[in-house]
Specification:
The chain is an alpha/beta fold. The protein has helices at residues 2-19, 62-79, 86-89, 100-107, 124-132, 186-213; strands spanning 35-41, 46-48, 96-97, 115-116, 142-152, 157-166, 172-181. The chain has one domain. The longest helix has 28 residues, at 186-213.
C-alpha cells in the first residue's frame, strides 16, 4: 500500500512539473529542453509592391517565389550552417533542425493575394493563431521558427516574427517582430541577406536583451529534476 502511495505521489509530482515545463526562462541556456529549429514559414508572407519587380536581373513570378525560393531560402540555412548558425544565434551547443513542416506549409501557400501595398503588421494574436495551427503532434521541448511577414523591394527590407513556443501546447513563450536589410547577388541571396541580418541581430543584441529582460543570469544552470525528452 505504501509503495503504491509513493508511486502515485511520484506521478503527481512529475505531472505537475511537466505541466509547468518550458517557461520563457528555459529558452536561455536550460539544456534540459531541446530546441528545434523549424525553419522559415513563408505561408503568410506578402510581397509589398509588384511581384514582377521583386526579383533581381531575372524577373520572377508568384509561382517562382513559392515553388522555388521558399525552399531555397530554407535549405540555404541547412547547407551553410557555419554562416547561418542557429545554435550560436541562441547561445546553444546544439539545436535540432526539422524543416519538414514548413516545406509542406510553404508548398501549399496561397499566392493569389501575395501582392500588397503595405506590410500587414501581424498582431501577436494572429501569430499565435498561425502557431496553434501547426501540425505538430506528440512533441516536447521548445520550438523556434521565423514567420515571414513581408518582403519589400522598394525599401530593401523584410520583416520576420521570431517565435519560441512550447511544442506540446504550441503556446508562444517569446515573440518579436524584426526587420532585416536585404542584400546580395541574385534573388535567392538578396533576400537571404534579410534573414541573415536578423540572425546576426539576434545573436549580438536581441538575445542578450531578451535574457536580461526575463531576469536570467549568466549562470543559469539546468534543473536537475527536469525530464529528458
Amino acid at each position: 500500500m505504501l509503495k503504491k502511495f509513493i508511486s502515485i505521489v511520484g506521478l503527481v509530482l512529475v505531472s505537475a512539473f511537466v505541466s509547468q515545463a518550458q517557461t520563457v526562462k528555459d529558452i536561455f541556456g536550460n539544456t534540459d529542453y531541446t530546441v528545434t529549429w523549424y525553419g522559415i514559414d513563408y505561408s503568410h508572407a506578402k510581397i509589398v509592391g509588384k511581384v514582377s519587380a521583386f526579383g533581381m536581373k531575372v524577373p520572377v513570378t508568384a509561382e517562382d517565389i513559392r515553388d522555388r525560393y521558399y525552399g531555397e531560402w530554407n535549405y540555404l540555412i541547412l547547407d551553410e550552417p557555419e554562416k547561418f548558425n542557429i545554435a550560436e544565434m541562441i547561445q546553444r551547443k546544439t539545436v535540432v533542425k526539422d524543416i519538414s513542416m514548413v516545406k509542406q506549409l510553404n508548398a501549399a501557400a496561397a499566392i493569389d493575394s501575395i501582392e500588397v501595398k503595405a506590410t500587414p503588421y501581424y498582431t501577436p494574436q494572429e501569430i499565435q493563431k498561425f502557431v496553434s495551427a501547426y501540425p505538430i503532434e506528440n512533441k516536447a521541448g521548445i520550438g523556434l521558427i521565423f514567420i515571414a511577414e513581408s518582403m519589400d523591394k522598394s525599401t530593401t527590407t523584410a520583416y520576420y516574427h521570431v517565435v519560441f513556443f512550447k511544442m506540446d501546447t504550441k503556446e508562444i513563450l517569446l515573440q518579436e517582430r524584426l526587420k532585416g536589410a536585404a542584400g546580395g547577388s541574385g534573388t535567392r541571396n538578396y533576400w537571404a541577406g534579410s534573414y541573415y541580418n536578423v540572425m546576426e541581430y539576434i545573436k549580438d543584441e536581441a538575445y542578450p536583451k531578451w535574457k536580461k529582460n526575463n531576469g536570467v543570469s549568466k549562470s543559469t544552470t539546468p534543473n536537475p529534476n527536469a525530464p529528458k525528452w
